[in-house]
Design a protein that fits this description.
By secondary structure, this protein is mostly beta strands. It has three helices and 15 strands. This is TIGR00266 family protein.
């Protein structure tokens, strides 16, 4: 939460008639708590922000299901049911290393990304491949499968790991930056990570 109108009250860890939101995923292995924002009167405004630099996508559900990876769920109307059972089972079976949340119901859903968000609209039978670290969300009408990039040599030498292949009809969303890759590059650039960078010295006793 960044800001809100004076008429808006906040309650943590309950459900009701307000806007349910967290700064990170409520399920899928992350925070188990959620903030509920309720307007005490006619209306109110709440401003939300993701914890990392990126976009926020507003999606309207009308009884269908949207699957969002862990870390992508930001907020939703209280009528949206959030279930992680599907994601845990399917991720283990597919080897995707993802725990997607199943968002069901009618109302607004807000998903966050690291970097910009791109939309892919797939026709029936049309496929598209997205790096595992860049997958954000997809509609329930879209089928998916996880696989490695080429053979073992390609995986090791290219630095690429798992990819997700989506087959339409339906829509897929992906982010333009990968948080895992970004984190690894920061760690490698930091001094004193355990490797001699040429500027240190050893003391022998």
């Amino acid at each position: 939460m960044v800001s809100h109108s004076p008429s808006v009250s906040i309650e943590t860890g309950s459900s009701g008639d307000g806007l349910l939101g967290t700064a990170s995923s409520m399920l899928g292995g992350e925070s188990a708590f959620a903030n509920e924002f309720t307007a005490e009167g006619e209306s109110g405004t709440v401003t939300l922000s993701p914890p990392t630099p990126g976009d926020i996508h507003h999606h309207e559900l009308n009884g269908e299901t949207l699957y969002a990876v862990d870390g992508a769920y930001l907020a939703s109307d209280p009528d949206i049911d959030i279930d992680s059972d599907f994601g845990g089972l399917e991720s283990m079976l597919s080897g995707a290393s993802l725990t997607p949340l199943a968002l069901n119901g009618t109302g607004s859903v807000f998903i966050e990304t690291f970097g910009g968000i791109e939309t892919i609209d797939l026709d029936h039978g049309e496929s598209y491949v997205v790096d595992n670290d860049h997958v954000v969300a997809w509609e329930s009408s879209v089928e998916f499968d996880a696989r490695r990039v080429g053979g073992l040599a390609s995986t090791v030498l290219s630095g690429e790991g798992l990819v997700m292949e989506f087959t339409g009809p339906g829509t897929v969303w992906y982010q333009t930056r990968g948080l895992d890759t970004f984190t690894e590059s920061i760690v490698e650039a930091m001094p004193g990570t355990g490797e001699d960078d040429g500027g240190g010295f050893n003391i022998e006793f």
